[in-house]
Every structure is written in C-alpha cells, then in structure tokens.
C-alpha cells in the first residue's frame, strides 16, 4: 500500500469516478484503475462495487475510507512536523537571564516576536546568577543567556551580541548616611564598604569595580563579597555597604533604595546575549538571527 494508492482511493471515493480522479492527479484513468486493483488485491477485498454502471463504495470500502483519510492526514502532519524540526521550527529553547535583570531590555524585542513567529518552539525562561548562567551555557542546560559584557572574560567558546548599553551607578539604602546628602559626589564614597559579587559568582568583578572607581581617584578600601547580585541588593538594603551596579538592574526603583549616577560617565556596561558557537540546537540559529535584523 503506497501513499499514492491511498490518495487515489480517497479521490475516487470523493468523486465516485476513476476518470475525475485521474484528472485531479494528472494521470490516466487506466493507471487509477490499476492502482486501485492492486490495493484491493493487497487488502483482500473490494473497495468499490465494479459491477454497476455508477462507481459505488462497498461497505468495506466505506470503512477503509474513514481510516485512510485519517491515516493520510497523520502522515502529512508528521512530514510537516519533521520538516519543521529539521529547520528548527519545533523543539525546545532554554533562555537564561541574569537575576535581577530588567526583562524589558530584551523580552519585547526578542522573546515575544520569536514566540509569535515560531509557536512550535517551546521556550523556557530561567533566571540565575552570573555563575549559574555560565555553568548553564557550558553544560548545555541553557541555549542563550542574557548577561553583562564584563562576564565575557569568564566564558569560552561563545558568540555574543550587544543588546543595550546600561549605565553604572552607585546603589545604597535610603537609610545610608549619604542618601540624604544633596551635593553628593563620587569622592564621598571613597571610604565606603563596597558590596561585590564573589569571585565564584563573577571572577574579576572586584578588579572591574576598582578600574571604574580609579577614574575618580580611589579604589575599594573595604569590601564585602556577596554570593550573587540578588544577595548584593539585600546586603545594600541592610545597610552593610554600597554597590556599583547598573541601570539594567531591577528592584533598585523600590522605595528603600537610592542610587547615584556618576557624572561624567567614564564607561558604560553593555547588556549582551551569548550562546555557544558549537550549540547544535537549530532553534538557537533561528533565535539569534533576530539580532542581525535589529
């Protein structure tokens, strides 16, 4: 039984005519008759009543018609699904995002349009620390991550794309003594304790912070390491010190935080998307194609 034979049978049953079936499939009437005959021989019973002037389905033919229509629809659906899978239009894509990152930097421009264009791809969105994102990318548990550019020195074999520039700022609690100072300057933070992500979470981050502060003539004199950025914000909220973060961080708009934006800005931080250059998930290619279109 071939798909051509099935389609010929369905068409002949629809038209109750081998001639019209042949016209629909751009073949000859004798070929249709021969293929139906071969199908009947294989099945062991007649599909049509051939003894009457008008072509009619036998009871067995009517039963087979119902099942074969369903079968051919499933075959065509399976082929379409397989083609989509080969092109990356189905499957899973796992996206990691720095916690607490401002989702508005990438969700409206990349996540929403991608889901609308490729509804067959199941998206999983996971938040994590710098370390969790790096490890997720390394282990293949994340396909694409959204993080900050200074992390690139800690990740190997990846491709990255700039999403947006964000500005460095000093974050403090509203209960911090400097929070009420009206003419605040960067020099006022010279003797403050800086909360910095741990070496495990973001290797080299303290050096990055000191490089930034050196533009204002000082470096961190006192440091407290936090396990990750989320903990860093809790430390700041608790009044244990201040932190160099950026405008891409959420939660700092809450009433118990105050931030100071240095001026002039000696440098910017860039929010990026990163993915492994050896990731074979075809969905990654479809997702990252968006970056060249912006």
UniProtKB/TrEMBL annotation:
A molecular function (GO) term: DNA-binding transcription factor activity
Domain HTH lysR-type: 1-58
One Pfam family this sequence matches: LysR_substrate
Chain segments annotated as transmembrane: none
Cellular component per GO, a single term: protein-DNA complex
Cross-referenced SUPFAM superfamilies: Periplasmic binding protein-like II (SSF53850), Winged helix' DNA-binding domain (SSF46785)
Family matches, as CDD domains: PBP2_LTTR_substrate
Family matches, as Gene3D superfamilies: Periplasmic binding protein-like II, Winged helix-like DNA-binding domain superfamily/Winged helix DNA-binding domain
InterPro entries: LysR_HTH_N, LysR_subst-bd, WH-like_DNA-bd_sf, WH_DNA-bd_sf
Keywords: DNA-binding, Transcription, Transcription regulation
Name listed for the protein in its UniProt record: DNA-binding transcriptional regulator, LysR family
Organism of this sequence: Parasporobacterium paucivorans DSM 15970
């Amino acid at each position: 039984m071939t798909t051509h034979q099935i389609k010929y049978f369905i068409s002949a049953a629809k038209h109750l005519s081998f001639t019209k079936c042949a016209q629909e499939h751009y073949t000859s009437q004798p070929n249709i008759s021969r293929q139906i005959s071969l199908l009947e021989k294989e099945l062991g019973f007649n599909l049509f009543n051939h003894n009457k002037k008008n072509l009619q389905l036998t009871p067995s033919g009517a039963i087979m018609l119902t099942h074969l229509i369903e079968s051919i629809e499933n075959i065509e659906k399976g082929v379409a699904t397989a083609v989509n899978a080969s092109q990356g239009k189905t499957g899973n894509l796992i996206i990691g995002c720095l916690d607490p990152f401002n989702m508005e930097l990438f969700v409206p421009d990349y996540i929403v349009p991608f889901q609308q264009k490729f509804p067959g791809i199941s998206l999983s969105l996971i938040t994590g620390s710098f370390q969790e994102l790096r490890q997720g990318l390394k282990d293949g548990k994340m396909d694409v991550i959204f993080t900050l550019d200074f992390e690139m020195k800690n990740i190997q074999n990846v491709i990255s794309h700039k999403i947006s520039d964000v500005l460095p700022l000093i974050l403090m609690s509203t209960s911090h003594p400097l929070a009420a100072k009206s003419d605040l300057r960067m020099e006022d933070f010279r003797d403050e304790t800086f909360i910095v992500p741990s070496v495990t979470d973001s290797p080299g981050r303290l050096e990055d912070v000191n490089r930034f502060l050196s533009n204002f003539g000082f470096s961190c004199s006192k440091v407290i390491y936090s396990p990750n950025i989320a903990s860093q914000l809790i430390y700041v909220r608790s009044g244990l010190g201040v932190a160099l973060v950026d405008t891409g961080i959420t939660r700092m708009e809450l009433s118990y935080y105050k931030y100071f934006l240095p001026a002039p800005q000696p440098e910017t931080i860039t929010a990026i998307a990163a993915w492994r250059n050896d990731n074979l998930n075809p969905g990654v290619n479809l997702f990252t194609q968006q970056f060249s279109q912006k």
